[in-house]
Design goal:
binds magnesium ion, about 450 residues, single chain, five-stranded mixed sheet, alpha/beta, Hexokinase, domain 1, about 40% helix, six-stranded mixed sheet, binds adenosine-5'-diphosphate, Nucleotidyltransferase, domain 5
C-alpha cells in the first residue's frame, strides 16, 4: 500500500470511529431519553418503549416441582424440563434445541406452531420422558405481546425477521394449545406465557434477591425490571400496592444518534422504522452493519486492493458469529472462499468489527444504566443484572465494554452493578413462572 492510500484508510477508519462512537455525553442523553420514554410508556402515552405489564412479580425462591418450558427466541427453539427444589435451586433436568428453518419463520397459517409441537414431541422422545401424565408448560415467547393474563396474550407485531402468517393479533397461547392438540400432545397444558427478559429476571432472582433486571442480548435485545404497580398508570386495575415486572420492549427505543449504515440497514429491513435500538445492538444485525461498511470501503478502494468481492454483496452474508471469530483472532475468510487476504486488510476488518461491536456494547450498557438509575437514582444498593443471549455470552470483550460505560457514568458506584450471565435463564425462569401459575390454579392461593 502506498502512503496516500494508507492515509486515506486511516482517515476513513477515524471517520468510522467517530460516527459509531458513544461518548459519555451521548450515554447521559440516552439515560435522559430512556427515562422520558419510560414515563410516557407507563402512563400509556406515545412512546417508543411499550412498557408492558407481565402479570408476574419476582419469585420467592420457594416454588417447587417439575415443569416444562418452551423457549422461542429468534434463532432456536429450546424445550426444557426444570426441577425446582423450593430452596432457590432450579436444575435443568433435560433440554433439546432445534434450529428454526427459514420457511417456518415466514410460513403461512399454523405452520410455525405445528413445527413447535413437533419439536416438543421430539424432546419427549430424545430425553425418554413418559407421556402418561399431564404436564404444565410455560411458554417463553420473545416477541412483543400485549398480555391480558398470565396465560394469554396477543402478538403485537413480529420482529427479528419473522413474518409467519396468521399470528399477529392472535393469542399465541391459544395457537400453541391448538397445535398441541392437533399433534396428539394435548396432555401438555400451557400454564403461563412469559417474555424471555421476564424469564431471565425470574430465573436469577429465584436465588438472588438483589437481582432486579433481566436483559436479553441474543438475536434481539430487550429488558425488564420490577416496577411499583402504583407507577403503571396505564393499568389502573392492577391494584395499588406491590410490584410487577414490566417488559420494556427496549428494542423499539428510537431516540438515537444513527448513522448512514443504520439508515441503509433499516430501509432494507423487513420492519423499516421499527426496532431501531435492536438494529444497532443485537446479534441479528451487527454482521449486516459491518457488511455495509465493508461494501462502502470496497467501493472507495480501501479494501481488497480496490476489487469488489461478490462474497460481501448479499444482505446478511456476514453474521455476528463471523465478527466474533475475527475478534478472537481467527477469521472467516476461508468460509467466504477468500484466499491471500493481506495483513492490512485483515487488520482493517478487525477494526470494523471492533468499532461496530463496541457501539453495541456501550449502547446496551447505557440502557442498563438508565434502568438502574430509574430504580435507584444514586446507585445506593446492589443490583444484579441477569443477562441471557449468545452475544453477551460469547462475543470477546463485549462484557468489558459494557462495564466501561457503566464506570464512565457512575465511577466507583458502578461496582454495585453486577452483570451476570443467566444461561438458559429465559427457559428456566418460564418454568418458575409456570410453577407459580399452576400453584395458584391448584388452590395454593398464590
Ligand atoms: P435466541 O436469541 O434465539 O434466544 P441466542 O441467545 O443463542 O438465541 O442468540 C443467537 C444470536 O447470537 C445469533 O443470532 C447471533 O447473532 C449471536 N451469536 C451466536 N453465536 C455467537 C458468537 N459465537 N459470538 C457472538 N454472537 C453470537
Ligand atoms: Mg433467547
Amino acid at each position: 500500500m502506498n502512503k496516500d492510500s494508507a492515509n486515506m484508510l486511516d482517515h476513513f477508519l477515524s471517520h468510522l470511529e467517530s460516527v459509531f462512537s458513544i461518548s459519555l455525553r451521548d450515554a447521559q442523553e440516552i439515560i435522559r431519553n430512556f427515562h422520558q420514554e419510560m414515563r410516557y410508556g407507563l402512563a400509556g402515552g406515545k412512546s417508543s418503549l411499550k412498557m408492558i405489564p407481565s402479570f408476574v412479580g419476582r419469585p420467592k425462591g420457594a416454588e417447587k416441582g417439575k415443569f416444562l418450558a418452551l423457549d422461542l427466541g429468534g434463532t432456536n427453539i429450546r424445550v426444557l424440563a426444570v426441577e425446582l427444589d423450593g430452596n432457590g435451586n432450579a436444575a435443568l433436568a433435560a433440554v433439546s434445541k432445534f434450529a428454526i428453518p427459514q420457511d417456518v419463520m415466514s410460513g403461512t397459517d399454523g405452520k410455525l406452531f405445528d413445527f413447535i409441537a413437533d419439536c416438543i414431541k421430539l424432546f419427549f422422545k430424545e430425553n425418554n420422558i413418559g407421556t402418561q401424565q399431564a404436564y404444565d408448560l410455560a411458554f417463553t415467547f420473545s416477541f412483543p405481546v400485549e398480555q391480558s393474563s398470565i396465560a394469554s396474550g396477543k402478538l403485537i407485531g413480529w420482529t427479528k425477521g419473522f413474518t409467519a402468517g396468521g399470528v399477529e393479533g392472535e393469542d399465541v397461547v391459544a395457537l400453541l394449545s391448538e397445535a398441541l392438540r392437533r399433534k396428539g400432545t394435548g396432555f401438555i397444558h400451557v400454564a403461563a406465557l412469559a417474555n424471555d427478559t421476564v424469564g431471565t429476571l425470574v430465573a436469577k432472582s429465584y436465588a438472588d434477591p438483589s437481582c432486579d433486571m433481566g436483559v436479553i442480548l441474543g438475536t434481539g435485545t430487550n429488558a425488564c425490571y420490577p416496577e411499583k404497580i402504583a407507577h403503571i398508570l396505564k393499568c389502573p386495575g392492577l391494584g395499588a400496592s406491590g410490584e410487577m415486572i414490566v417488559n420494556m420492549e427496549w428494542g423499539g427505543f428510537s431516540q438515537l444518534k444513527t448513522n448512514i449504515y443504520d439508515h441503509l440497514l433499516d430501509r432494507a429491513s423487513l420492519n423499516p422504522g421499527k426496532q431501531l435500538f435492536e438494529k444497532m445492538v443485537s446479534g441479528m444485525y451487527l454482521g449486516e452493519i459491518s457488511r455495509l461498511v465493508i461494501v462502502e470501503m470496497m467501493e472507495r478502494g480501501l479494501l481488497f486492493r480496490g476489487t469488489s468481492l461478490s462474497a460481501f454483496s448479499k444482505g446478511y452474508a456476514l453474521t455476528t458469529e463471523h465478527l466474533s471469530m475475527t475478534a478472537q483472532g481467527t477469521d472467516f475468510f476461508a468460509a467466504f472462499g477468500l484466499r491471500d487476504v493481506t495483513t492490512a486488510d485483515r487488520q482493517t476488518i478487525q477494526e470494523i468489527c471492533r468499532i461496530v461491536s463496541t457501539r453495541s456494547a456501550k449502547l446496551a450498557g447505557a440502557a442498563i444504566a438508565a434502568v438502574v438509575a430509574w430504580m435507584d437514582e444514586k446507585i445506593e444498593s446492589d443490583h444484579t443484572i441477569a443477562i441471557d443471549g449468545s452475544l453477551f455470552e460469547k462475543y470477546p470483550g463485549f462484557q468489558g465494554y459494557m462495564k466501561d460505560i457503566l464506570n464512565d457514568l457512575f465511577g466507583a458506584r458502578s461496582a454495585r452493578i453486577k452483570l451476570e450471565l443467566a444461561k438458559d435463564g429465559s427457559g428456566i425462569g418460564a418454568a418458575i413462572i409456570g410453577a407459580v401459575a399452576a400453584f395458584a390454579r391448584d388452590g395454593g392461593g398464590g
